[in-house]
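From the methods appendix. Each design record in this collection lists the tokenized structure first, followed by the designed amino acid sequence. Records were kept in a plain field format so they could be parsed without special tools. The example shown here is representative of the layout used throughout.

RECORD:
FOLD TOKENS (234 positions):
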């Protein structure tokens, strides 16, 4: 006899996401000498952060992991709490229900379904951009507005979509003649979109984008990701 890693048997591809969540939770949080199939219902948020980071780096195959500000955004998302400080979240625990049972407020999916969509998109289309730290990714639309509102016209950054699973969007500032600013979010790009035309080429196409936040000219930031031929994924 030998102990194996967790196994989940599914009968349809639409169960794959839940199966991966079950395996991840069991593999990360079960005790070695446990009673079979018994696993904690709640785990410390800090331990969850470590798990998400290891999963992200392994899936994307990158050495650039999640940062403190990414964990803060993820905590706000999973706990639905935008008033707590990063320190407040450190002492909290997260439940299996919050991870992969409860639907996120105003959405049609769970936290894990959303995070797994980000994993898949980054692995398939955005690995080199993430590894070059060109994507902020895990940041709220509200905080993006705060960052960009004082920046020059055409300043932009990339964030993972809140409203869609597996989408990356570009937020950019438009400054009027009167000096007023407006931050716009371009319709998210899916893996299918980026397989038709890469993210770098799409950024090159969009004339309203000038500098990657805070102040790097877009050609300098993304030039190595431009395709010499039309179309084609990265």
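DESIGN:
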């Amino acid at each position: 006899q030998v102990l194996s890693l967790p196994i989940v048997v599914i009968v349809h591809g639409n169960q794959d996401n839940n199966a991966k969540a079950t395996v991840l939770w069991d593999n990360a949080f079960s005790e070695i000498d446990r009673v079979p199939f018994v696993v904690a219902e709640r785990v410390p948020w800090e331990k969850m952060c470590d798990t998400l980071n290891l999963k992200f780096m392994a899936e994307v195959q990158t050495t650039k992991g999640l940062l403190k500000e990414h964990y803060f955004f993820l905590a706000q998302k999973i706990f639905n709490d935008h008033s707590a400080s990063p320190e407040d979240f450190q002492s909290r625990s997260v439940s299996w229900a919050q991870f992969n049972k409860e639907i996120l407020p105003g959405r049609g999916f769970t936290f894990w379904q959303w995070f797994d969509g980000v994993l898949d998109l980054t692995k398939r289309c955005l690995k080199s951009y993430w590894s070059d730290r060109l994507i902020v990714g895990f940041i709220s639309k509200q905080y993006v507005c705060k960052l960009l509102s004082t920046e020059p016209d055409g300043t932009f950054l990339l964030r993972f979509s809140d409203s869609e699973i597996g989408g990356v969007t570009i937020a950019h500032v438009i400054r009027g003649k009167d000096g007023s600013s407006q931050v716009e979010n371009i319709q998210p790009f899916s893996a299918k979109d980026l397989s038709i035309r890469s993210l770098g080429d799409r950024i090159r196409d969009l004339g309203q984008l000038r500098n990657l936040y805070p102040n790097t000219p877009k050609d300098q930031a993304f030039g190595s990701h431009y395709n010499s031929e039309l179309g084609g994924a990265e």
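APPENDIX NOTE: The first helix runs from residue 16 to 29.
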